[in-house]
């Protein structure tokens, strides 16, 4: 096999070039090639300086994650970085694209760094449940100081080249189109300069206050995760002990994380998210349709949020409402949302105007005629939706994609109200639609392959994570939510309190528990609206106007700032029902709550797989991470089930009398996993 690394001579400069698409991950072959390149430079007196650069779209984007968990081939990355730093000829990193993780560590091992202005540097390891394990936590604070090193390692967001330059992580900015020439010139300039700047020889200034403040400020964000604390500890260590000792500490912490279940879960999600884009029977190169203008029907919360995704990506939107008041209210909310984002400094005032300038609000349904994709986002009523799709069939141009944002309803039935079911599919956004990253793309029986492929590609463009779901009630996410909510209600009857159940879910890592979620979404959603008909606790709450946060009362009482407190009235209602139904009362334990609310979700996930409504278990995990805030360090419900053990899950389900999915049972019996 040819090496992904080649060398070129430019006078007395040796250029070591990596060509390992797509992202120049530091695979064994790349590391071996780089080692050979440095040895070549060391062994040749005619070489006076070295430039390391990459072909393709980016500088090294990190260690090769696919090698994790397998026996490490020499040279290990930390040795390689040390070797580069120890080279007695100046080594210059020439950076474009993203220097990430191990790639950034290679750059910091080099004596000098030059980058194009569009380049970014970062340590995203923490997002994989890891820390920079090739000296990054020790070199970064020595070069850039403790506060920035903490930000970069423990949060994992990359920084732009200019910021890196201000912090000393980059020595010089190259021209955007002249990196190679500028890097050669830079290398030429530093030939013979002594001593060579070696990061390991610098001192990291202790900054205990910065460490404490950083910890405190981000406590909420880091809740439940192991890796941020380990990153912080390593950066702090860099200021306390000599370099070698710090490296030793970093190694130990890295290995602990690498062996742990959290990193396995986070790496699983990294690949799961990318796999989700692939549709088994749709080739990658299928010709996609052009989407130059999007139409949205309904300017309510969902319609507005959906529109914003496209506007932000520079795609014009025609939004249609039934009356002027609703239209104005809807566009007003969109503007306000943009302005709030601008007030936080995340976008500029110009960008607000640019986005809003792409919006065409109208009362004229026929204005949808020139749209390439039309998304219906009106309320959940099959007759209304069928009527709209019937009208769309007459109005939309030939080849336009017709989508419904329904969260439960049958896409096949909706499609059948048109003469072109092949152009119809579901695009289920999650509220708030401009924020939540998940998009369930619902494939009807007749949906054309190019329609699916077009929408999946478009999802990426508007920065959503899209997952394909088959037609079934609630698709993947809401379908799995149902057994959880039902069981949570039953537990109330048997002696648990809403706060007790919610607490177990929050401690598990969910952003909120089933009852907090009900209160936020609206307890009245889907209620029959007959205050006389009281058949459930929910009916009783709704009948008294306890509709959730919007009424400052639901399963909890809320103050003006929406802080919840347990409600004595709700306790009474629950007690009443317990008496009426005569449900068996017992002490509900934390473990029982897990077994009865989370195991059934896994069971439902298995049924979804069995019925072919999801392509793969990892897709289900992606839905729950990005749509419902399942803790990423537990890898999604199906991955989590693997870590619990499928046999244990089946036993738990049987103990509580659930109807176990045959697929789940089969896997448990064979000792298999979902992922
Ligand atoms: N190792 C192996 N494969 C990788 C990879 C890596 N570090 N980074 C990306 N890939 C693969 C992806 O899986 C994907 O494969 P596919 O086409 O088969 O699905 C392909 O490269 C392209 O990736 P994206 O679709 O993500 O491409 P984008 O252009 O959208 O993004 C990127 C590029 C910003 C580099 C993004 O891929 C990314 O964030 N990669 C991960 C970077 C990272 O986490 N680096 C740290 C690794 S850990 C480490 O370095 C440990 C060290 O400290 C010891």
Automatic annotation (TrEMBL):
InterPro entries: 3-OHacyl-CoA_DH_NAD-bd, 3HC_DH_C, 6-PGluconate_DH-like_C_sf, ClpP/crotonase-like_dom_sf, Enoyl-CoA_hyd/isom_CS, Enoyl-CoA_hydra/iso, NAD(P)-bd_dom_sf
Chain ranges of the 3-hydroxyacyl-CoA dehydrogenase NAD binding domain: 294-469
Domain 3-hydroxyacyl-CoA dehydrogenase C-terminal as annotated: residue spans: 474-558, 593-654
Taxonomy, superkingdom: Bacteria
Entries under CDD domains matching the protein: crotonase-like (cd06558)
Alphabetic keyword roster: Fatty acid metabolism, Isomerase, Lipid degradation, Lipid metabolism, Lyase, Multifunctional enzyme, NAD, Oxidoreductase, Peroxisome
Pathway: Lipid metabolism; fatty acid beta-oxidation
Reactions mediated catalytically: a (3S)-3-hydroxyacyl-CoA + NAD(+) = a 3-oxoacyl-CoA + NADH + H(+)
Gene3D superfamilies: 1.10.1040.50, 2-enoyl-CoA Hydratase, Chain A, domain 1, NAD(P)-binding Rossmann-like Domain
Localization of this protein: Peroxisome
Entry keyword Lyase: yes
SUPFAM superfamilies, sorted: 6-phosphogluconate dehydrogenase C-terminal domain-like (SSF48179), ClpP/crotonase (SSF52096), NAD(P)-binding Rossmann-fold domains (SSF51735)
Main location as per UniProt: other
Keyword Glycoprotein: no
Protein family membership: Belongs to the enoyl-CoA hydratase/isomerase family.
Complex formation: Monomer.
Protein name (database record): 3-hydroxyacyl-CoA dehydrogenase NAD-binding domain-containing protein
